[in-house]
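Q: Predict the assembly, please.
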Amino acid sequence: MKDKETKAVIFQILIKIAPDVDPETLEMEDNIREVLGIDSFDFLQFIIGLDEEFGLKTPEEDYGKITTLKALITYIKAAKQRLIK
Amino acid sequence: MIEFNMPSLGADMEDGTLVEWRVKPGDRVKRGDIVADVDTQKGLIEIEVFDEGTIDQLLIKEGEKVPVGTAMAFIIPEGEPEMAKKESPAPKVKTEPKKKKKKKNEVKKKAIEPTAKEILTGSVDRKKISPLARKIAAEKSIDISSITGTGPRGSIVVRDVERAAEGKGKSRKKVKEDKKAQAQKGLRAAIASAMSKSNREIPHFYLEAKIDMSKAMAWLKKTNKKRDVKDRLLSVVLLIKAMAKAAEKVPQVNAYWEKGLHLKEAINIGFAVSLRQGGVVIPAIQDALQKSLPELMLLLTDLIPRAKGLKLRSSELSESTITLTNIGEGSVATVFGIIYPPQVAIVGFGTITEEAWAENGTISSRPVIHVTLAADHRAIDGYLGSRFLTAIKDHLQNPAAL
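A: Predicted assembly structure:
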């Protein structure tokens, strides 16, 4: 999956949990939660969505690693690599 | 005969517009059944009935705006013969004249969303249209009479239908946005009125306690490690349960002030949900004391998205007995709330942050939360408030027992 496609899926999940946000305004280095106003409840729904869409199992201690779009895309790529191995 | 009235969904609600009846005369209803959808300042609310019986008469029409307390329907109670109908008093319908503005909206809506009949009977025959264009128009529910044809001799072709479909999408979106903006304005007015009343009438006093959250957070981490991502708990459920248990110990905080203190048996915690675009909605977590932590989490998963979408039930908006406001994330350490009348207390939880903590002569770094109580001094005093906050603290030191 290309970065662009990953990003599109991430945006779909964001719109699903927070229908009134516009993820298109996000820059790659922006803090997703701060910029879009995602609270801990929405964030948990976001993680659930990511796990479902990408087949991951994101542990709680990794939440701090996926604060920006750039970090999240890298994280998903690495996690999928691990899954293949 | 029982009168079913427009319910009050909080001290700030003056009226509501009946959008749809979900029942008709002759239908049997029982406690908790949803009988109508009512548009209020707090969004579209599903109205529940609290009696058991048979719907006798619907007294107000869909689209009507009536003040709180107006009779909306008659219900024949269980066991009462239908004959009672004739003895029933004349309905006290306090109908407000329909506003012109509302009518205008209706007309607008109609133009945008033609009924199936209109689509079929529109002046289709007088207009020339290609078979494919007709098929697409039917699929997309577009009124052919509203399309200007650009094909040969003014006939309607596919591109005309597509253009019309695009325009329809846009205007639908606009109506949706307008409605949202209107709801937003209403909500703001409702908050303004309730909070002004509270500040004017309630002599608030405030207390604050700092709570060491090491044990609670360690327990949460451990339990979440074993849980599937879907079943993970958020720290807020620990706060809700600790607060419910503390309210059981100090029942005077779980009460209404209405010409005197009235203790409430059920502990229904009003959970303040902030809307991203501004505004707060406070649905009730009913019988919080009786619910386990996973049950509370499940309930929040259902309640929070509906609160954010302004789609709550009447009981969820009117049955809170004490409020919890939770700043959650960010860098705010302490929040002092304003009581939601007629309640007598609101508890505020700040963000959990690492702080230097002195205990037994040593200093260490610990996750700490600041909890506040804003209470009605007509109803309770500092001593009880202090006991209540201490009880919250004690319960959070033993998370496994929550």
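DSSP finds four helices and no strands in chain A. The mean pLDDT of chain A is 90.
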